[in-house]
Amino acid sequence: MMNQFKKILFTLLALAAFGGFGEAYAQHTLGVFGGAGMATARLYPKREQQQLFPVINGGLSWRYYSMPRYVGCVGVDMEYMQRGFSFGYTYTSKYDDQGKEHRTYKFFTRHVNTIMMPIVWQPHVYLIRNHIRVFLDAAVTFSYNFGGDYEYDDQPTWSGKYNWRLERDNRWNYGLAGGGGFALLFGQFEVGVRARYYFGYADLMRNLNKYRNNGTDGRENPFYYTPNRSPMDNLSLNVTLAYRFNKEGFETWNAPRQRDRQIKKKEFNFSEAAGGNSGRRRRR
Q: E strands of 153-171, at which residues?
């Protein structure tokens, strides 16, 4: 099952990356991007958490641009992304004069390395004679988790490389992503800024019905029981640079559309009609 899933992913990527280049009139871009952002997980039962910042991401992107009347482009990204979460595993309490409790948490932090493949749709508009492209981002994402590390705030010697285990950890994930941005067009180059939020659906750690006893776990797993839910989310801000193939594309786009048929107006001439009627009377 896993091998079939891998084949499907690689097939989709290959088709997206090379399938459209046969059309000479089409516009394609191949680009790079990189940036930083924040990461967290939606643990359930809910726990005290803090955002991981900064986490980095970057990679390659390919886009296919249709005619403006179809408003939008499609494409595929292949990116490296840091993900993870940080939750309070212990705390100390202090009480003020009114008896209100104030907690100071110590956090367990885990970083996860991910290879992410978003399949993207970008509705967009062009401004200032095709020199600015403003777009929205919508994507379905597939990802593979690998590597990473962990650390404790109050126990520096407990930090180290994370030990992945099949019965506890889920390497394959999927989700949705959305955002927007803009790009400046200089000839055949695009330089822009993009913000995107990644919303995970699959759990990082397997649910209770698959994995319950962690008696043999090391310090890399501070949970007494694996959480019921543990999907990961990311927010990233990227700088993008892309090269646009087929520089004649905009000239084709600006050509006026030809009407399929033209309706000619025909005026009714009363004088000719009257003359024709009188002629008929004379011949009679």
A: 160-161
